[in-house]
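[Archive record]
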Amino acid sequence: MQRIEAIQEIRAFQESNQPRQVIVRYLESQGVSKTSAYRWINEANNLDAEGNAPRDLAIKATIQILNKATQCENYEIALKAASTLAKFS
């Protein structure tokens, strides 16, 4: 089972209020290690409704700020946004 598929399955289990142990047992039966199962459950818990991770959302927002600041010729803000983006790399 691949990571993306597993996260989709985890979210389905979570929506039906299945306990964490049930999810781990299911993933193990699909050939996923216990370590990966717990890691993917934690990752699934950190996603928003559209499946975006907080880091991805922060990058998108920073890019929007950078673009808007550049359009408004506010280069100080644009440089701060660019500096923030560099930290995500």
Notes: The helical segments are 3-15, 20-29, 34-45, 54-71, 75-88. Residues 15 and 45 are 11 Å apart (CA to CA). The two ends are 28 Å apart (CA to CA). The chain has a mean pLDDT of 88.
